[in-house]
From TrEMBL:
The name this protein goes by in its record: UDP-glucose 4-epimerase
Organism the protein comes from: Aliidongia dinghuensis
EC class of the enzyme, as a word: isomerase
Keyword tags: Carbohydrate metabolism, Isomerase, NAD
Pathway per the UniProt entry: Carbohydrate metabolism; galactose metabolism
UniProt-listed PANTHER family: UDP-ARABINOSE 4-EPIMERASE 1, UDP-GLUCOSE 4-EPIMERASE
Cofactors: NAD(+)
Length: 325
């Protein structure tokens, strides 16, 4: 019998790709999402329950009705800029919402959870690449809310026998290689979909945030990781927990960074379209460079990115972008 997995935020970008990967691996994903940012049409693998993670009673009901054995928890607000101006909604949704899930787990006896964390928990580290031992010092409320839940998970282990894997994603990007789902944030703030908008003429130009960083070409460097590789890591993290694995935290990145200029150039190369660019000032709170050391995820889960070369990322994202025309 397929194991039933509750996927909170499964109507969103990374959650829907993970639901597909879970189904392919023989699990039965049950998506739980309030559709505040998610899309009903992105839920194509397994049943959908419309609900809020703050509603603990409803979570308990679904966990019992669907005989849930583990939770993959994506549901959160994830706009860094907004988190600075409205921290209250981030602490409420991301922290209280996650604690509500942990309450429902304690009430129903579910012992395993995979949690969406982020490289934003590291803040502005001065040494690259980032290992899991790099000091976590978030510089915005969004990163702070994720770190708080990592810490809660640390303490819920010994107290309640809840084992967890916190996956610290670097920059998620790309789309389902079969074109069934893709990145559909509204509003969109992420670099690659905005560059594709500029390439296709949906927006006038891409704003390059800062050209005076201490990097080889002056623009900021990030570690871009394909959403399909992220989805695969969740499947492996679940298997690790089902095998009795202990609570842990893992970086999910490639180990290689690309600058904003390099990404724009790659889009021009892959799409054959000119990308008008406008050089503007730095965006507040953006670190110059964030690159993962993914060795721990490789060792513990046997996980290795296979789709995350910049051309595959842009090719799949572009195919999805073109469909939406
Ligand atoms: N996209 C990235 O680059 C990135 C990087 C690091 C971490 N993350 C984290 O990964 C997770 C998924 O990110 P994403 O890009 O897929 O975002 P997304 O907005 O596409 O998906 C989040 C989903 O959660 C749902 N949701 C939000 N609050 C909810 C609530 N209270 N109850 C029920 N559902 C709720 C939304 O409707 C949405 O479908 C988030 O936790 C985010 O913080 C994302
Ligand atoms: O129009 C844009 C958008 C972005 N950038 C630059 O492109 C890079 C990537 O920016 P994104 O907004 O795509 O992503 P971030 O690096 O800001 O990602 C952060 O926010 C995400 C939340 O959506 C994740 O949590 C992630 O882990 C966290 O580092 C940054 O250097 C940014 O300055 C631009 O130059 N122009």
């Amino acid at each position: 019998m397929a194991k039933n997995i509750l996927v909170t935020g499964g109507a969103g970008y990374i959650g829907s790709h993970t639901a597909k990967a879970l189904a392919r691996a023989g699990y039965r994903p049950v998506t739980y999402d309030n559709l505040v940012y998610g899309h009903r049409h992105a839920v194509q693998w397994g049943p959908f329950v419309e609900g809020d993670i703050l509603d603990t009673a409803k979570l308990e009901q679904v966990i019992r009705d669907e005989a849930i054995e583990a939770i993959v928890h994506f549901a959160a607000f994830a706009y860094v800029g907004e988190s600075v101006t409205k921290p209250e909604i981030y602490f409420h949704n991301n922290v209280m919402g996650s604690l509500s899930i942990l309450d429902a787990m304690r009430a129903t006896g579910v012992k395993q959870i995979v949690f969406s964390s982020t490289c934003a928990t590291y803040g502005m580290p001065d040494r690259m690449p980032i290992t899991e031992e790099t000091l976590q010092r978030p510089i915005n409320p969004y990163g702070e809310t994720k770190l708080m839940i990592e810490r809660a998970l640390h303490w819920y282990g010994p107290a309640h026998g809840i084992r967890s894997v916190s996956l610290r994603y670097f920059n998620a990007c790309g789309a389902d290689p079969e074109g069934q789902i893709g990145e559909e944030h509204d509003p969109e703030t992420h670099l690659i979909p905005l560059i594709l908008d500029a390439a296709s003429g949906r927006r006038a130009a891409i704003d390059v945030y800062g050209t005076d960083y201490p990097t080889p070409d002056g623009t900021a460097i990030r570690d871009y990781i394909h959403v399909q590789d992220l989805a695969d890591a969740h499947v492996k993290a679940l298997a690790y927990l089902f095998d009795g694995g202990e609570t842990t935290q893992l970086n999910l990145g490639t180990g290689t960074g690309n600058s904003v200029r390099e990404v724009i150039d790659a889009v021009e190369r892959v799409t054959g379209c000119k990308v008008p660019r406008r050089e503007v000032g730095r965006r507040a709170g953006d670190p110059p460079e964030l690159v993962a050391n993914p060795a721990k995820a490789n060792q513990l889960l046997g996980w290795k990115p296979v789709m995350s070369d910049i051309d595959s990322i842009i090719r799949t994202a572009w195919a999805w972008h073109q469909r939406g025309k």
